[in-house]
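Deliverable D4.2, example record:
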Amino acid sequence: MMIDVTPDAFEHQKQNMIDIRHDLHRHPELGFEEHRTAEKVASELKSYGLEVHEGIGGTGVVGILKKGGGNQAIALRADMDALSIEEISSHQYRSTVNGKMHACGHDGHTAMLLGAAQFLSEKQNFNGTVVFIFQPNEENGLGAAAMVNDGLLEKFPVDEIYGLHNLPGATLGEFSTRSGTICSSESLFEITIKARGGHSAMPQKGVDAILVGSEIVQAFQSIVARKMDPGCGAVVSITEFITDGRRNVLPGSAVLKGDVRARTPDDREQIKTHMQRLLIGITQGHGVEADFSFSTEFIETINSAEPTQIAIQAAKKISDNVEGDREPMSFSEDFALFCQKKPGCFILMGNGTEGANGKPLHASDYDFNDDALTIGAAFWVQLVANRLPE
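Output generated by the structure prediction step:
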């Protein structure tokens, strides 16, 4: 039997979810430092009667809820970490920790999933196993790997995995996702130019590292514009240009740092190859050397077809505003590793368009929308009801 669930079913839990969210917001913790957060999550799960495992991947928490005799198991994931940002909000639950805040809504994600766990433990009949994953250190792309390397998927085997993230600027109650790539990869690159410094009045005596670096900056901007498919959605950005030059001294070295976003592994590798070729040509032309590193911090988040349809169907039970083939997002998400290991779906939920709820993610005046808590919790419960029917 499949049961429909609405956000109204969570009204009696809403204040508790708000209280949890505000408490987490007041006490933000960075990646792998989520000790207080993890303790609170574990305590809540235990109070609902779940089997609880702590310290998975460092500070990760896993809750297990099994009903009936079904063998199917699905995982629902929330992230717990905050960011190194000084909050400028004035609300009464603002961060009490200088230089740290929940500027991405992970406090809301955690509260929503706890609300769903409580509801499922008390009221919802289903047949199978739900694994609730509370992941540390999403922001640095390290938490999913830490949990996987700690045996998460062997200790708690699942058939599918799902992730939900709020999206400011999208209408409250709106859901959107797509099959295939939903979030871009992020690769960090660094170039160290080894030129020859000299007097600014006699540039011919040396090789100006700024000139060489400037040519590299310009050339790299041609990669996406002229060497890739116009619709590929890739982005190449130089974010730092550091030299050892002074007022009348031409620099002999320079360091360029930057960021690459790509929607497919092939595009990511093509960009890396083009960078290497351009770098060789420019440095050889100037008779200098350069070191080059390229490190992928987040792989592409790629949704599997069947879980995506399941998530869309559940969202349509909750909302009349569901987009099942949205454009991929340019930001990156650590959930990508879970999607690489198991069939999965990452879905976005509107956080609102006004005030702090509409501010961009990672903004110092952003805030998660408390009215989204019942919507997100209802989505999770509906997903379980659909996927593990009694």
